[in-house]
Amino acid sequence: MNPTRRNNNNIVSIWDHALPPTGSTPIIQPAIQQRKGSCAIAAVSTHIAYNLRISYAWHAPVCTALPPGMLINHEVWEDEIVSATGEKMKEIWELLEEAMINGAPLLNGLKLRIDQRFHFNLDENAMKTRLNFFTIVVVFNVHDDFSIDGETPYMGRDAPTFIQGTVIQDTHAVVLVGEYKDDSLFMGNEPKETLWIYQNSDGDKSRSMLGNGLSVLRHSLIVEAYCGEIYGANEFLVDWAANRARPHRQRARVQVNQAAGGAAGGAAGGSP
């Protein structure tokens, strides 16, 4: 994210809470580019990558060693899923479970089983709490005034698209990384509500309101919210970043992770 934009006093983001006091590497990375109709897997891949970085930052003395980018190879992952099932997974919860059960491919060619504690159907207060520690995947309604490039805040004042008298209520999946504090975005007597900072995987990222595909979304447009709290992958990431582990040790660690996490992962609830 552009540092001059990051210092905007309206922004309350994952940077302010998730990194340890000595953390120096920003969690937010340049947005990935999704394939057409693949916003769900792009959003989940971004969510997992950010939360791996957050977890790693708390368990490693220097988090600059992790390579830049999303860590998860979302296109390879999508191809693997389509090859195995014959279709794309478009439900957020299905993709979070897939990452936990069968693993997700990393950019270094290995596959890591992502142990997670799931939180589904988060309400507004729970979303604010989770954003102190993790990113959140949301699905929101798309109205005519939604800008795919994100150059303006999405307030959803226009109606959904009508085709031959039928309302076409389209949806889109993105990742929330913080709150945006600016009541001036509301008109007249319009009720005030939470404004979220999201990162999009579609559109022209350079045109977005806050840079790197980051823009603003009002809470009432969100229809689903999910969080996968990541745990159990820290030693693997430390070894990977420090280049101390040979490939056979890394593969063995993934297998141990898979065996150890089978009974523990996926329980809803709990505190960060």
Structure, explained:
- The chain is α+β, with helices and mostly antiparallel strands and 272 residues long.
- It has a single domain, classed as Cysteine proteinases (Cathepsin B, Chain A).
- 30% of the residues lie in helices and 20% in strands.
- The strands form 3 sheets. Strands 1, 4, 5, 8, 9, 10 and 11 form a 7-stranded antiparallel beta sheet that branches.
- The chain is globular.
- The protein starts with a helix and ends in an 11-residue tail after the last helix.
- The relative contact order is 0.20.
- Mean pLDDT is 76; it is low at 1-7, 17-24 and 244-272.
Number of continuous helical runs: 8
Biggest β-sheet description: 7 strands, antiparallel
- Under CATH at level 1, the class stands as Alpha Beta
Which assembly state applies to the chains in this document?
single chain
CATH superfamily: Cysteine proteinases
Shape: globular
Mean pLDDT: 76
Number of strands: 11
Order of helices and strands: HEHHHHEEEHEEEEEEEHH
**Strand portion, in percent?**
15-25%
Q: Helix fraction?
A: 25-40%
User: Would you identify the regions where 5 or more consecutive residues have pLDDT less than 50?
Assistant: 1-7, 17-24, 244-272
Could you give the distance between the termini? 25 Å
Taking Cα atoms only, what radius of gyration do you get, to the nearest Å?
19 Å
Quickly count the domains: 1
Question: What is the CATH architecture annotation?
Answer: Alpha-Beta Complex
CATH topology: Cathepsin B, Chain A
Structural class: alpha+beta
